[in-house]
Write a structure and sequence with these properties.
193 residues, mainly beta, 8-stranded antiparallel barrel, 2 helices
Length: 193
């Protein structure tokens, strides 16, 4: 009986040790940069990715909330309209500016040496406007709102991550991109209570 009990204790200790080695089993603030395709007549889009992710509560699944501001640029050759002031001067070509508010649910496939594979699905809403980014001679459209979704596959090493994604917006259709960033672990109170 004693050898069996000791083996059982060793297995339990190994399980506890494995749990402690999971670098992602915490709560994080995520901050990153993104780039990708944009709807025509815009050429490409860049943006930020800021949010909260919880890997602690339902690990290996995780959930979170993200804010994703983006800006898409065009060029005079591709943009179909040109705007002039009353004096006849040309306005700058408008850019597409949007902000997405999304809820996220995902799965973390943990590997050895602090390397994790992350797969997630985001659902949310998008607010968009066109603006020529000029306060002195401003040209802007009204805001438009649409439903959006995004599928992500990424790799995280310790507090750094990189992802690729495919997005769908009810107004703009499909787009593709990627990003990289950092996960900042929340304090002791958040991860021990």
């Amino acid at each position: 009986d004693k050898p069996q009990q000791s083996q059982k204790k060793d297995k339990d200790n190994d399980k506890d040790k494995d749990k402690k080695e999971f670098s992602r089993q915490k709560q994080f603030i995520v901050i990153g940069a993104t780039a990708g395709t944009a709807p025509k007549p815009f050429n490409f889009a860049v943006g930020l990715n800021v949010g909260y992710e919880n890997f602690k509560l339902i690990y290996p699944f995780y959930f979170g909330a993200l804010i994703k501001p983006k800006i898409a640029f065009s060029s005079p050759e591709n943009f179909p309209y040109h705007y002039k002031t009353q004096k006849g001067d040309n306005f700058l070509i408008p850019s597409l500016i949007n902000a997405q508010l999304m809820a996220e649910i995902g799965y973390c496939l943990a590997t050895k040496k602090d390397l994790d594979i992350l797969i997630s699905l985001c659902l949310g809403a998008n607010a968009s406007t066109m603006w020529n980014i000029n306060f002195a001679s401003s040209v802007a459209s009204q805001f438009y709102f649409s439903f959006c979704t995004e599928a992500n596959v990424g790799v995280a090493y310790k507090n750094c991550y990189a992802t690729i994604n495919a997005s769908y917006d009810a107004m703009f259709g499909f787009s593709f991109g990627g990003g990289f960033g950092f996960s900042i672990k929340l304090g002791k109170w958040w991860n021990e209570n």
